[in-house]
């Protein structure tokens, strides 16, 4: 899969749209840059990637994406430092995970060169779109979907790989209140929970809306069998700090192998913070909340970075988390964003200049 | 939801493509008729449905269907009798189920009049496309997907409802050999298994391909926790006949409430066939295969109608089903297709003239 991308075809936009964008008031993922990358899979091979002006896609009504949900994606960000240089964070890990998702969803793997060269070429072209305001970044969305035709429920014979860029503000504003879910589930043992595929997200919307009606921002998913084990929050992995120990669930075929999650585990080790990657149950967390040993809960993901949880709801009771002056969450967030924005050394080798 | 469809806008095709179609050699769902129905949801309401020439759809790359899998569909068929009259089979049940899927996937419900009137208008326009060869029919695909924009993982604000028609031959050719799956799973407790949503299908492709490599046509899914209970086959519900008793699993939030499935249960009652709707375990079926009491297994679904199973594989052993001269499967198939093609009375009130 180390195929070198043949020279990427580039068609530049005639007039940039950048002057129309209010970079001080960016929502998340709702404004798109001048260009996008498109690469078609047909006749059994990925074709030459093309960079072109951001534009609509034309598809047959029988394209399998509309019917059988063959789609995968990644979430990444590009950051700009004070000198105007652009950086990516662990991009090879996104490529690796995209192909893990591809295999589970019967989508052909994308060669690394197509992904990395295409990504860098595209970001260089739209470098002026990387916001420099703190908390803002250029959100990067690589995705693949089934464009092949037909109503037979089987894998498509044609796919489209795209990369789109969206200058974005914060995913969550402020602290997050979560509900521990015991009725609905996100994924099955032997299912596709570990893959970044569309269906995993659509299935969460209804239970999340029910939680939002009750005043929560997100759902924390538990396993579908016992609803005892804390798994993930759908758009974030979950960390729990009991006394000074940081706990998170092991990844499995139900849980996404988050890049921010594993970065936090590595930072914690370097910082001498005791970590436990193990099953953590709801009763354990409730008990810790009651006896005061529960110090922190936070989500970790590319979109939300490190997202402190202010309270969790469980069986009709809300449990507030304490307000700490020097939280693990804020330490991790500072270390990660300092690396991302080239404000610090990068002892882990995660930062990659575009 | 009994809104009357405002007059459907109709734009007819200039020249029909029908003369290009070989009706004697139709695959399943790969040829499409002259027209399609399109109805947009925006500004909080479904707009006027339009019938137009079958054509490509244009979508923004950030349309949520590509990222978050919000999609639902139905499978139906239209049949033609010897007089050239066209019929549908229990179409209201498809409308009802589409809205059940819609609710679970946070998609706005489609009003019944939009569905039924649009369907009938479209079929009347493309009536000449209904094949009359035995075993062939006009496959109907109503579907809704998220066309609204943005990378935020939340329900879209715009949707498209389409109906496309595909003159089709049989879904399976010949008898089917199935593998009882114990590693992978189709759906979780509290998940979306009962909804006809794209992600439920994409997740099956990989395990099904593994089974196909071993010589099977389809997988029979078991529950994700114990892998003991027989659930469904992904594109079909499953019936098992032990001695003269017909057994099928109860519907649940993991299993699709199949229209062919419930038709068979009603026919069985009318025919005096003893039925049991209950959990049925793999060990029970294996034991019945060994002691000779297992008489039949068959799948039931709109696409495949009634699909006899010739053998099932389990833990490395294949168990053959006997060849019966007067099987339940063939009786049900005859009764159902005689009703569908207007070759018999319709004591159940299932047939609807278009």
TrEMBL record, chains A, B:
Pathway: Amino-acid biosynthesis; L-isoleucine biosynthesis; L-isoleucine from 2-oxobutanoate: step 4/4; Amino-acid biosynthesis; L-leucine biosynthesis; L-leucine from 3-methyl-2-oxobutanoate: step 4/4; Amino-acid biosynthesis; L-valine biosynthesis; L-valine from pyruvate: step 4/4
InterPro entries: Aminotrans_IV, Aminotrans_IV_CS, Aminotransferase-like, B_amino_transII, BCAT-like_C, BCAT-like_N, BCAT_family
PROSITE patterns in UniProt: AA_TRANSFER_CLASS_4
A molecular function GO annotation: L-isoleucine-2-oxoglutarate transaminase activity
EC number in record: 2.6.1.42
Catalytic activity: L-isoleucine + 2-oxoglutarate = (S)-3-methyl-2-oxopentanoate + L-glutamate; L-valine + 2-oxoglutarate = 3-methyl-2-oxobutanoate + L-glutamate; L-leucine + 2-oxoglutarate = 4-methyl-2-oxopentanoate + L-glutamate
Cofactor: pyridoxal 5'-phosphate
UniProt entry tagged with the keyword Cell inner membrane: no
NCBIfam families associated with the record: ilvE_II, PRK13357.1
PANTHER family named in the record: BRANCHED-CHAIN-AMINO-ACID AMINOTRANSFERASE, SUBGROUP IIII AMINOTRANSFERASE
Name assigned to this protein: Branched-chain-amino-acid aminotransferase
């Amino acid at each position: 899969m180390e195929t070198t991308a043949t020279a990427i075809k580039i068609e530049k936009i005639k007039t940039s749209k950048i002057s129309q964008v209010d970079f001080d008031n960016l929502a998340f993922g709702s404004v798109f840059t001048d260009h996008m990358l498109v690469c078609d899979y047909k006749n059994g091979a990925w074709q030459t990637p093309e960079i072109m002006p951001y534009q609509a896609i034309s598809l047959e009504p029988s394209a399998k994406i509309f019917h059988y949900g063959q789609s995968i994606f990644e979430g990444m960000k590009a950051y700009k430092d004070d000198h105007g240089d652009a950086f990516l964070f662990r991009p090879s890990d996104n490529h690796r995970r995209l192909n893990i998702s591809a295999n589970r969803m019967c989508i052909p793997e994308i060669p690394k060169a197509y992904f990395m060269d295409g990504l860098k070429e595209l970001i260089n072209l739209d470098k002026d779109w990387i916001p420099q305001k703190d908390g803002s970044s250029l959100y990067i969305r690589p995705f693949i979907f089934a464009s092949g035709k037909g109503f037979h429920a089987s894998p498509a014979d044609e796919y489209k790989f795209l990369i789109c860029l969206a200058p974005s503000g914060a995913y969550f504003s402020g602290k997050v209140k979560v509900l521990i879910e015991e009725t609905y589930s996100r994924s099955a043992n032997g299912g596709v929970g570990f893959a970044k595929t569309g269906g995993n997200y659509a299935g969460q919307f209804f239970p999340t809306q029910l939680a939002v009606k009750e005043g929560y921002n997100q759902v924390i998913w538990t396993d579908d069998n016992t609803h005892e084990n804390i798994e993930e929050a759908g758009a974030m992995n979950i960390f729990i700090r009991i006394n000074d120990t940081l706990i998170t669930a092991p990844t499995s075929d139900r849980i996404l192998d988050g890049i921010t999650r594993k970065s936090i585990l590595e930072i914690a080790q370097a910082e001498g913070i005791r970590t436990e990657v193990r099953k953590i149950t709801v009763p354990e967390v409730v008990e810790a909340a009651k006896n005061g040993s529960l110090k922190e809960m936070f989500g970790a993901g590319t979109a939300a970075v490190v997202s402190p949880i202010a309270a969790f709801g469980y069986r009709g009771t809300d449990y507030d988390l304490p307000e700490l002056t020097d939280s693990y969450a804020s330490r991790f967030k500072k270390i990660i964003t300092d690396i991302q924005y080239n404000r610090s050394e990068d002892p882990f080798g995660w930062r990659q200049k575009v």
